[in-house]
UniProtKB/TrEMBL annotation:
Designated name of the protein: Arylsulfatase
Residues covered by the Sulfatase N-terminal domain: 12-332
GO molecular function: arylsulfatase activity; metal ion binding
PANTHER family the record matches: ARYLSULFATASE FAMILY MEMBER, ARYLSULFATASE G
Sequence similarity: Belongs to the sulfatase family.
UniProt xrefs under Pfam families: Sulfatase (PF00884)
Record keyword Hydrolase present: yes
Amino acid sequence: MITHQNIAQEKPNVILIFMDNYGWGEPGCYGGGILRGAPSPNIDRLAEQGMKLLNFNVEAQCTPSRAAILTGRYAIRTGNSSVPIESPVYGLTQWEYTMAEMFGDAGYSTGIFGKWHLGHTEGRFPTDQGFDEWYGIPNSSDECAWADDSRFRENVHPFAVPEYVMEGIKGQSPKKIKVYNTEARREIDGEVTLKAKEFMERKSKDQQPFFLFIPYTQTHMPVIPSEKFKGKSGNGDFADVLIQTDYYVGELMQKADDLGIAENTIFIFTSDNGPDPTTPHSSFAGPWSGSYFTGKEGSLRVPFIIRWPNKIKKGSANNEIVHEMDLLPTFSNIIQQQLPSDRIIDGIDQTDFFLGKQDSSNRESVIVYVGDELYGVKWRNYKMMSKEIDKAFADPTRTYGVPLMYDLHIDPKEENPLNAQWYHNTWIRWPAGEVLVNHLNTLKEEPPIKPGTLDPYLPSK
């Protein structure tokens, strides 16, 4: 007989922190920290105890990135290639198989505390997608301003309503706890941290393995610190929030230590996409250019730290390409839980790479989308881009008849395309072009789900 205790001894817990619009260059271990007026001792210590990736890639927007990390599939496939604009009924169809469902099928308890942004209607909440419990917000933090604005009018549209902090249990309809206004926005990440620590304590007491997903609401606009941290940095609200975030990460690390589960827990810190471009809510992308909603490296690369004591080498760092979609098949291998075979999974198993059994990642390319528009392809240290935008919301999208090519080793800011020396570099179009053609063929093999598709959904044969 397999008991929860047996499972707990054999399979690791997983804690996955998923920041919001938190740039590559924010923590000290990525060149930020004191440079940003906000030391990050806890996040830096996590990097010292684990592996730091310099080339971890995500999708360019909030909703697509959340869809990709949970399904192991490009967001274009699931109907979530953009933040919800086309239809108020958005998010994952129940046909999709999420990371939470995989862990649940393997005997894990699953919890999410924080921002969902993958649906706000019946059947589209986290507890409909494999999570046993949830506390947080269904949509995005910018909606917190609605309730405080004298110009806001309710009852003009069924979806133009204040956002709420919600709580849910699998099998029950989530309940509205309180209006998510700017004051609630200040304290939500502290509440999320407390709920996460309580979850860890309950599951450890029951000796049940758990998957804990913590999609914090910071550093999404409006970036305003908790009262406890206001003025803490002496360098403004953004630096206060960075210090606040590092403190919460430290609390979670300490809780794992206090419960005696740190040795058997995979602990990950990462982000959904690069920074917002608007002042004063803009995070720091480090050496990369571009904000979210662009196909530039500042949009696609985010910090990624993974710690698994005695499994992943301490203090290791590399520039190998890994994508957020790779986490699903990697965890599938680690916990020995099979994924569905009736759909395309874009993620690639990185277990041996993370465990140091090989030096190279199993991935060498990434397709670059911005919304539902295909911008180009990243292959090894090169990019081949047929569309570009420098700064979201401010600049027009440029389309090129002949794609621009970049070498990220010599031009990390993507300022000097190789086309000026085109006869030296046209060979890049063959390997990069093959990646692109193969991807486009898979969209014919399995047509993408259309945004706004209702449940029940089954793919056409």
